[in-house]
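step: validate -> pass
step: tokenize input -> pass
step: predict -> running
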Amino acid sequence: MKQENRIIWVAAMIQLLNVIDFMMVMPLGPDISKDLPVTNPDIGLICGCYTLAVGFSGLACAKFLDRFDRKNVAVVTVFGLAFATLCATFCWNLSSLIGARILAGLFGGPAAAIAFSMVCDAVPPERRGKAMAIVMGTFSVSAIAAIPFGLELAEWGTWKTPFYAISILGFILLFLIARYTPSMKEHLQAKTTELSLGQLLSNKKYLLAFFMMITAMISSYAIIPNISAYFQINLGYPRSSLGFLYLVGGVFSLILIQIGGRASDKIGPIPTNIIGTVLLLIFLYDGFMRSPSSPLLVIFIMFMGMVCFRNVSATTEASKLPAPHERAGFMSLYSSVQHIGNGIGALVASVILSTGPTGKLVGMKWVGLLAIILAIFQPLALIAIRQPSPTNDELFQKTG
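step: predict -> pass
step: emit ->
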């Protein structure tokens, strides 16, 4: 149990680095645009290119990740992510910043896949909801601590200062992985034929899991990269309170994702996901399709919290599908479609949105409508995945 907990927390730190690296660009959009020839709608383009790079690298690596010790993969990917983040501090225009973010994304894909694969290897299915909630809770932790701290660093220095901090954190984590993480080679003992991408993509339930995640991510990331600019420019939310917004939103999101993980273990992923979806739709409509009737803090909390609440139930169920020798490959593809969805959502929103004569974002209600329609697909796909049939985890336990 002690080693299991150590692996869970190492995986959580890898994912935390990955999430901070991605999320930091979004609230810094207005700051970046003051220093570089970049507009606020360009932030969606930058985020979209990053996530598409994550998706591409995950697809490219899916066939190979299960051939190596999980620890070695973690070392390589964390080093690459830290180095690529440092490269962003040398950018001088939109093209160079996109290039640096693409480089980071190429390492971010396999980093996310290996983090979840480590948890799947170490934690049995009956406890995996709680473990997944810890790893996925890094999204909220980044909002609680990292992003507010990064925003303060940017005010104290420049928009580059948070990227220096993220890079330093990555190199510290690299040392911790090399020094304290056990070797994880058990999946290499499985006597099986070489895994192919076609095998992964021919499984109907795998495809449902990928569809479930890509639609949810398009829905979420059509909104997320634009929240900072929309709240500040369109709704008058003060820049000085932005760190507080992410802090409070992150605290509640962390609580909600832990509740979601435990609820998935206790009452099942489908009821958990349906509850989260209904609440998400309510606050998407109130916050982004009309003049908000709820306080912006409440809208932010419920939007971010329900995104996390839903996704932990979906990811927990998806993680039970692959056998051990397929886990890294499956999770790499799963991470890929997740980030491809992020990229598509951000890019589609950047096409829909424009800057009006007064500097406000125009077209947010259409982005909100798109998010609502696509959010509905996740519980439907989850219901289809949960149709009775033994998962590979269960088959492996019976035979192993």
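step: describe -> The radius of gyration is 20 Å.
step: cleanup -> pass
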